[in-house]
């Protein structure tokens, strides 16, 4: 095709990106019914998806498309903006628009009847626009703008039910946490700009790009003529990573994500699956060459720790969405870990497979919550619709939802025949290979990842067994019979589609070998991809045998209500149940600390600053009083005195001018006589 | 030979009488006469001093000049007095007090 020039492809990509933005403006600025806009939103995101798929077919494993135009010039430095479509970005485009379309369709039923539905569609549009822009941006500054927009639109979406106080608190928390990370991103951008004089991703991070050809020598990070101390290389890497930590909810900035569950479930699904939290991983993939070995180790450690920590928290949560939220944090930790150990392509692979199964988990949970809320409203009861302790036995009443969620759970647990098996094992195997030949401490990373994946199998099967097995516990609680139905068709079909996407044939021809996955072949391949050692067999076997055992245990405990040890009172349980006390520590250390400092500053301001100001004011008053006194009495006194004197003199001399001839004569005579007398006595003149 | 001091005494007396007339009279004509007295006192001095100027008799010449000047001045002064009278209908100098701003 001759018409398919680079330029046309980039324009197509731009169209795909801008369509959701158009939705946003169209819905907000065209008045109508409160529920308007759903069809526009779905149509535009569907168009985006179609274009994305087309772009994918054109670009995947072929020459990347990179088009740019001059953006602005500042201080003699010209900035280019443009579109960069390589394997990574077209993959992400399809993923984002695909997941977004499914969530849109799902939302038509899930959000039905919401009084501000049109705002929901508009915000979704803005959110998809920002994420797509982030994906295709060809320079860091543009990417940063999209990054901020993602943060902002997630703020709008998390706080969508703004009449709830908790939702407002949650979106504020998410926004502030993300701002912290954005600071890091910005710092990184500034360092890179200072060093390389450009922000273009291709020329910076491409093959033989500026970053790759820059060298570290004698403690200096040298790029052509410019150089800076090599510590800045690490600082830049860590700064970018801080941005990713906040967006992808990694330790220590992870606490916003569980709270973000206050938004609608469909939004949680979108944010958790392919978009917002994936942005951090995407960023790391984009700028991967920048990271030095030390920074990569930090990334791996943070990822492993986050994965382990949040999996342990997920073990004991009772809110269905919170379990999934911690599961997301944990899985993102896996991706970070993969980034850190150099398994970049596996990280992206896991990002893609995770997007599908986590989206499905959330949407299926949404279907359950939807049904529970329906029960609650129909029977005028009061109970928490998200508490898994109140659910149970839904397997027979919502069979489709159950099967879909089961598939997703198996994928999350990483059992064979699912996509999760492929991607998670890829990460585990590569982390073992990475630790091989390193010192003992770095062995902790793959082992903790192994334990984490066992935790994963346990907490997700606990969720499944509690929600879908046994009997419906609210019936017992309220001593009533409820009729629970399957979710509406629009929601159900979405679940089925996603369930299909969670199976292995979508990604690999062989159910057990991740090395066969087509996706990995399109991404930068790590040298550990070949099956050279035993890890490729032992690790999956170890993971799965143990996982199956754990699932059986969970079945015994939660599915068949067998007697289980009472560990809900142990210290560890409470530690995990309180989410490792992060919120409390942040509250008591950071929030209270800042409040204390602020009080101090307030006091300082009140007493010292205001005191000085008041003192100066008072001094001014006194001075002006003095100056008024001086002015009145001395300056005016002199002036008035001079005038008075002149007046008096004038009055005195006036007597000499009587107008009478003889008086003048006398005066003249007296002066003359006086003169002669004076002359006679002085004798000098 | 009458000594010079006698002339000077008479001259001083004449001068003082003239001065008194000028300062105290309420008639402009009388003031003029007082002025004439004073002038005459001066002229008397000139004439008396001219005795000591053997060669040119400059004092007498000055006296002649002064007499002519006095006559001219009186003519002018009388003209002024006539005009003052025409304007104020009086020649009493105490009642003419407009010689000021």
UniProtKB/TrEMBL annotation, chain A:
GO terms for biological process: ATP synthesis coupled electron transport; electron transport coupled proton transport. It is found in: Endomembrane system; Membrane. Residues 137-435 form the NADH:quinone oxidoreductase/Mrp antiporter transmembrane domain. Keywords: Membrane, Transmembrane, Transmembrane helix. The chain crosses the membrane at residues 12-30, 37-59, 79-105, 117-136, 142-162, 231-249, 270-289, 295-316, 323-341, 347-369, 398-417, 444-469, 490-514, 534-555, 661-681. It holds the Pfam family Proton_antipo_M. It is a multi-pass membrane protein. GO terms for cellular component: endomembrane system; membrane. Signal peptide: none annotated. NCBIfam families: NDH_I_L (TIGR01974), PRK06590.1 (NF005141). This is NADH-quinone oxidoreductase subunit L. It comes from Arcticibacter tournemirensis. The gene is nuoL.
UniProtKB/TrEMBL annotation, chain B:
PANTHER family: NADH-UBIQUINONE OXIDOREDUCTASE CHAIN 4L (PTHR11434:SF16), NADH-UBIQUINONE OXIDOREDUCTASE SUBUNIT ND4L (PTHR11434). One of its GO terms (molecular function) is NADH dehydrogenase (quinone) (non-electrogenic) activity. GO terms for cellular component: NADH dehydrogenase complex; plasma membrane. It is a multi-pass membrane protein. Belongs to the complex I subunit 4L family. The chain crosses the membrane at residues 6-23, 30-50, 62-85. Keywords: Cell membrane, Membrane, NAD, Oxidoreductase, Quinone, Translocase, Transmembrane, Transmembrane helix, Transport. NDH-1 shuttles electrons from NADH, via FMN and iron-sulfur (Fe-S) centers, to quinones in the respiratory chain. The immediate electron acceptor for the enzyme in this species is believed to be a menaquinone. Couples the redox reaction to proton translocation (for every two electrons transferred, four hydrogen ions are translocated across the cytoplasmic membrane), and thus conserves the redox energy in a proton gradient. NDH-1 is composed of 14 different subunits. Subunits NuoA, H, J, K, L, M, N constitute the membrane sector of the complex. This is NADH-quinone oxidoreductase subunit K. Signal peptide: none annotated. It comes from Arcticibacter tournemirensis. It catalyses: a quinone + NADH + 5 H(+)(in) = a quinol + NAD(+) + 4 H(+)(out).
């Amino acid at each position: 095709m001759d018409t398919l020039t680079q330029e046309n492809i980039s324009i197509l990509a731009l169209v795909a990106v801008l369509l959701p933005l158009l939705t946003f403006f169209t819905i907000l600025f065209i008045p109508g019914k409160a529920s308007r806009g759903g069809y526009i939103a779905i149509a535009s995101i569907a168009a985006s998806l179609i274009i994305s798929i087309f772009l994918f077919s054109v670009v995947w494993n072929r020459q990347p498309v990179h088009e740019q135009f001059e953006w602005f010039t500042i201080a003699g430095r010209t900035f280019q903006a443009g579109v960069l479509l390589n394997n990574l970005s077209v993959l992400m485009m399809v993923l984002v628009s695909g997941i977004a379309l499914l969530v849109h369709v799902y939302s038509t039923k899930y959000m039905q009847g919401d009084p501000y539905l049109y705002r929901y569609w508009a915000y979704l549009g803005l959110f998809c626009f920002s994420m797509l822009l982030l994906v295709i941006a060809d320079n860091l500054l543009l990417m940063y703008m999209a990054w901020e927009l993602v943060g902002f639109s997630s703020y709008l979406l998390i706080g969508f039910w703004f009449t709830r106080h908790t939702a407002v608190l949650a979106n504020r928390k998410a926004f502030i946490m993300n701002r912290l990370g954005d600071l890091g991103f910005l710092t990184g951008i500034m360092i890179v700009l200072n060093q390389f004089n450009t922000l273009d991703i291709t020329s910076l991070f491409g093959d033989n790009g500026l970053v790759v050809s820059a060298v570290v020598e004698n403690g200096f990070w040298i790029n052509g003529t410019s150089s800076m101390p090599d510590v800045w290389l690490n600082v830049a890497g860590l700064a970018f990573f801080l941005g990713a930590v906040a967006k992808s909810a990694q330790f220590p900035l992870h606490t916003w994500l569980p709270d973000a569950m206050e938004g609608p479930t469909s939004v949680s699904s979108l944010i958790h699956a392919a978009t917002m939290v994936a942005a951090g991983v995407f960023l790391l993939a984009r700028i991967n060459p920048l990271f030095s070995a030390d920074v990569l180790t930090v990334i791996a450690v943070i990822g492993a720790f986050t994965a382990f920590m949040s999996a342990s928290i997920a073990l004991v949560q009772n809110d269905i969405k919170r379990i999934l939220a911690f599961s997301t944090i944990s899985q993102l930790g896996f991706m970070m870990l993969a980034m850190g150990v150099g398994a970049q392509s596996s990280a992206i692979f896991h990002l893609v497979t995770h997007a599908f199964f986590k989206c499905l988990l959330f949407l299926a949970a949404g279907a359950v919550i939807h049904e529970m809320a329906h029960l609650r409203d129909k029977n005028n009861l009061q109970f928490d619709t998200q508490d898994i302790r109140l659910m149970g036995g839904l397997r027979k009443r919502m069979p489709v939802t159950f099967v879909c969620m089961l598939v997703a759970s198996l994928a999350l647990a990483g059992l064979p025949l699912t996509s999760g098996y492929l991607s998670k094992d890829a990460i585990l195997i590569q982390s073992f290979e990475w630790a091989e030949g390193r010192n003992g401490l770095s062995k902790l990373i793959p082992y903790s990842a192994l334990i984490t994946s066992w935790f994963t199998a346990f907490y997700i099967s606990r969720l499944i067994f509690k929600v879908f097995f046994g009997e419906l516990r609210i019936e017992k609680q309220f001593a009533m019979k409820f009729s629970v139905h399957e979710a509406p068709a629009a929601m159900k079909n979405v679940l089925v589609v996603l369930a299909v996407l969670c199976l292995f044939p979508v990604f690999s021809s062989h159910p057990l070998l991740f090395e066969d996955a087509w996706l990995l072949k399109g991404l930068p391949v790590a040298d550990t991809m070949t099956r050279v050692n035993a890890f490729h067999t032992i690790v999956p076997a170890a993971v799965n045998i143990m996982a199956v055992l754990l699932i059986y245990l969970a079945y015994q405990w939660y599915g068949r209500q067998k007697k289980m040890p009472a560990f809900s009172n142990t210290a560890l349980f409470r530690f995990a149940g309180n989410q490792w006390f992060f919120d409390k520590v942040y509250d008591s250390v950071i929030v209270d600390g800042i409040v204390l400092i602020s009080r101090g500053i307030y006091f300082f301001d009140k007493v010292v600053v205001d005191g000085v100001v008041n003192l100066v004011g008072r001094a001014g008053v006194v001075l002006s009083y003095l100056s008024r006194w001086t002015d009145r009495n001395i300056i005016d006194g002199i002036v008035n005195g001079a005038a008075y004197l002149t007046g008096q003199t004038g009055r005195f001399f006036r007597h000499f001018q009587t107008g009478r001839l003889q008086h003048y004569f006398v005066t003249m005579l007296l002066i003359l006589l006086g003169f002669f007398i004076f002359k006679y006595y002085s004798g000098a003149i | 030979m009458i000594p010079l001091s006698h002339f000077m005494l008479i001259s001083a007396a004449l001068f003082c009488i003239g001065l008194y007339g000028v300062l105290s009279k309420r008639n402009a004509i009388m003031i003029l006469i007082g002025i004439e007295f004073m002038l005459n006192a001066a002229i008397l001095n000139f004439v008396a001093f001219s005795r000591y100027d053997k060669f040119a008799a400059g004092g007498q010449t000055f006296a002649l000049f002064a007499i002519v000047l006095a006559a001219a001045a009186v003519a002018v002064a009388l003209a002024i007095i006539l005009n003052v009278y025409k304007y104020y209908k009086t020649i009493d100098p105490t009642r003419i007090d407009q010689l000021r701003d």
